[in-house]
Amino acid sequence: MIVLLGVLVVILGFATRRNPLLVVGVAGIATGLLAKLSPQEILAAFGDGFASSRSVTIFVITLPVIGLLERNGLQEQARTLIGRLGKLTTGRFLALYLALRQLTAALGLTSIGGPAQSVRPMVAPMAEGAAERRHGPLPERVRERVRSYSASADTVGLFFGEDCFLAIGSILLITGFVNTTYHTHLEPLQLALWAIPTAVCAFLIHGFRLLRLDRSLDHDLAAPGGRSAAEGSRTAEEAK
Amino acid sequence: MIKAEWFYWLVGAVFLAMAAQMAVDRSNPKRLGSAAFWGLLGGCFFYSSWVVEKKAPAEPLGVAVLAMVCLGGFQLTGRGVPNTTTPEQRTATAARLGSKLFVPALTIPLVAVVCASAVKHWHIGGEPVLEEGSETILGLGFGAIAGLLVAMVVVRERRPSVPLHAGRSLLESMGWALLLPQLLAVLGSIFQVAGVGTQVGKITEQLLPDGQKYIAVAVYCVGMALFTIIMGNAFAAFPVMTAAIGWPVLIQQMHGDPPVVLAVGMLAGFCGTLVTPMAANFNLVPAALLELKDQYGPIKAQIPTAGALLVCNIAIISLFAF
Predict the structure, then answer these.
(1) Which residues cross the membrane (chain A) (predicted)?
(2) According to DSSP H, which parts of chain A are helical?
(3) ipTM (interface pTM)
(4) Judged by CB atoms within 8 Å, which residues 289-308 of B form the interface with A?
């Protein structure tokens, strides 16, 4: 029972926002001591654990390729590509981005998107722009909601796309852990295939909610004043 | 036969080369700490080969891991000023190269999948070409090398130092966080040695009516989500819940299909990641980047999806694993 205190160390460490490396290191040592391992055995556990989990870190080998491509405008090209889809409503645009994000992540291209690389510079401005085109200037509360949904499309797309790619950290972690602990033999490909049903559910559920965002924006902004502001901006835009 | 260990040595060599570059990078205020961190990591990739084969003791490796924890944990690593192209140059090359830029990036997963499915069955003189059980890892390695060659042709770059520098900038921007998934896997195996999973399993066995497989599935999935909410990371929750319920109850006792149970179990954990502020890099960082007043805005947008998906995951295991 007492070894469960190791879990408590992790909870407290993360709850008090300590550096995660230190939290995990201290929790490992504490758990080892509580289980009455000797210091040598604890060091050996750290060493053995590191050696058998190296596969989690090998994606580093792809960084030179991605870095070289980014130097030569990979993100700019992605922006151009997404820019061609600019004439959509907020919900449809975000649902489309969700699909793109899931598909590229499923091909292993997880670093194409992300809050810093794509959401802030491209996705959120385009989602807001689509809402403004339809409704005119957005109240602060609505703007926050559109931005929050933009971030959610990216995160949900990444989480439930990447596991369909077999060389991703979580898949390799599953095979690494299970194969070493239970002396069995699991193939990453089998696990990646079984990530597909959940990926489809994620797309249907979150996609539906993103499409419904359009209707709730219509509803919220159709109130008197909202409508006229929308009309005003539309004529203003046409006048340009 | 091509061995997985050779590929680990290549990764280790890349870390060592990047560490050497960092050691002489005067634009990095913490260049010695950074070089020590990544150099140790590279060295550990080599030394681990002998630990895996039981030809060397694991204790020195444990000391090195704790040294990296201290270097990263006490903020002794930093990043230099990246030597890269200007936004104008990038827009110009993007306009010139167009969607050809995606080809090298797509080469990596393509080669990886081909190795894991086709090359896996190739034999030379009765021996498999790729080490058995490591086809995926080797596929990623060949994919990365092929992708790099294609990329150098596409962007007409001759100097190998350029991609190495570019990769190092990405490495420095990720920093010590790169070690975290591996360290969480280590923590999981220590929890395993210490019997944390067995303890959680004993508690659930007392609470769980015997032979109720749908309830057991629900407990595994909800437990994955809850542990992930607490720890902020499904990677840390996975070994605990799998040792507690996933393996002993769902797979051994009830004969569930391991790939379904484990793959979907991990995804149940991801439902927890969607709703926890502990997963700061996914939930709080976007709120900060988008300048939201409500830092929980993204989490609120994700809660209904996470709840519905958790139900889907329970249903998927219940339907397909037995």
Answers:
(1) 42-69, 155-179, 191-211
(2) 5-15, 20-34, 39-52, 63-71, 74-83, 90-106, 124-135, 140-162, 169-181, 188-193, 196-221, 226-239
(3) 0.80
(4) 289-290, 292-294, 297-298, 300-302, 304-305, 308
